[in-house]
Specification:
It is a single chain. The chain is of the alpha/beta class and 335 residues long. The chain is 44% helix and 19% strand. The chain is built from ten helices and 13 strands. The strands form three sheets. Strands 1, 2, 3, 4, 5 and 6 form a six-stranded mixed beta sheet that branches. Strands 9-8-7-12-13 form a five-stranded mixed beta sheet, with helices on both faces. The protein has a two-stranded antiparallel sheet with strand order 10-11. α1 packs parallel to α2, α3 crosses α10 and α4 runs parallel beside α6. The protein is globular, with a radius of gyration of 20 Å.
């Protein structure tokens, strides 16, 4: 079986992982953490990836107990993502592929999440809810494509949560979404927020603007607490996501739902999805932070599938793109 190494650096996490025949041999990563109240800027994030790439690569190889001669293929995130971090990571992957004299494959970030989720949960043909800081999509497989049934029409759900965390000046360690989740557990009062589902699509920008205004007014007057606002935001956003996921499941007659992406770690989202799935006689497949959050092994796993099906990327075509939709990729490894 081929042994594949994957490089992921599309946002603030640099991860390098090795996969062989469905087994994750190593999967270290390092996260760029910005100060409270701030997001991560592309230039600073790229510098972080450049500074830590060799250390993470060395750690990855040592944990797997492998040498360069054991690697059959190098894979990297082609997109979507932030340009500067993507390019910094791709340069490392291209260099390694040429130094080690092995093929290279450019992988769609979204496909990496899906294939890693399918591997870890052993789900066969699930309806997929992909939720992260940069993407929000409901997806199902059909005729060699992952088809998008619904998506955000503005910002991603993770971006909405992250930006609200900045308003509250929450820490970015380990992540703003995680800290909102912990605060939401202490919330006792539900504040009604806009609920914006448009057919199979969702919109989060108006909700963010609304709750920012509410936060400035009601926190000062003592009408609610930050915990109440975190609780209300989570409940509203996740209810919208569960609704469009259930509609996609009904259309596909699906009995499995797979949650992937960084927001997929959220236990409240997983529980709301389970409540819906149980009513439909379905099951929820979800992973923990090892694989929900961006990591190198997911790129290696998707690349492994591509490599096994005969795909490689010519070195002159190993560029990156910030816009690379899930349904652009031909899925040659599935029936």
């Amino acid at each position: 079986m081929p042994t594949v190494i994957g490089f992921e650096g599309s946002a603030n996490k640099l991860g390098i992982g090795i996969v062989r025949d469905g087994v994750v041999l190593s999967n270290p990563r390092h996260t760029f953490i910005s100060p409270p109240g701030h997001g991560f800027m592309p230039r600073e994030t790229a510098r972080h990836h450049q500074a830590h790439a060799m250390d993470i690569l060395k750690r990855c190889m040592e944990e797997a107990g492998l040498t360069p001669s054991d690697i059959d293929c190098v894979c990297y995130t082609k997109g979507p993502g932030m340009a500067a971090p993507l390019i910094s990571t791709a340069i490392v992957a291209r260099t390694i592929a040429q130094l080690w004299d092995v093929p290279i494959i450019g992988v769609n970030h979204c496909i990496g999440h899906i294939e890693m989720g399918r591997l870890v949960t052993d789900s066969k043909n699930p309806t997929v809810l992909y939720v992260s800081g940069g993407n929000t999509q409901v997806i199902a497989y059909s005729q060699h494509r992952y088809r998008i049934f619904g998506e955000t029409i503005d910002i991603a759900v993770g971006n909405c949560l992250d930006r609200f965390a900045r308003i509250l000046k929450l820490s970015n360690d380990p992540s703003p979404g995680f800290n909102i989740e912990q605060m939401a557990k202490k919330g006792k009062k539900f504040i009604e927020l806009p609920y914006t589902v448009k057919g199979m699509d969702v919109s989060f920008s108006g909700i963010l603007s609304f709750i920012e205004d509410v936060a400035h007014k009601k926190l000062k007057s003592g009408q609610c607490t930050p915990e109440d606002l975190c609780f209300s935001l989570q409940e509203t956003l996740f209810a919208m996501l569960v609704e469009i996921t259930e509609r996609a499941m009904a259309h596909c007659n699906s009995r499995e739902v797979l949650i992937v992406g960084g927001v997929g770690c959220n236990e409240r989202l997983q529980q709301m999805m389970r409540d819906m799935a149980e009513e439909r006689g379905a099951v929820v497949c979800a992973t923990d932070e090892r694989y929900c959050i961006d990591n190198g092994a997911m790129i290696a796993q998707a690349g492994w599938e591509m490599f096994k099906s005969g795909q490689t990327t010519p070195i002159e075509e190993t560029w990156c793109t910030q816009r690379y939709r899930t349904d652009e990729v031909e899925i040659t490894w599935r029936d």
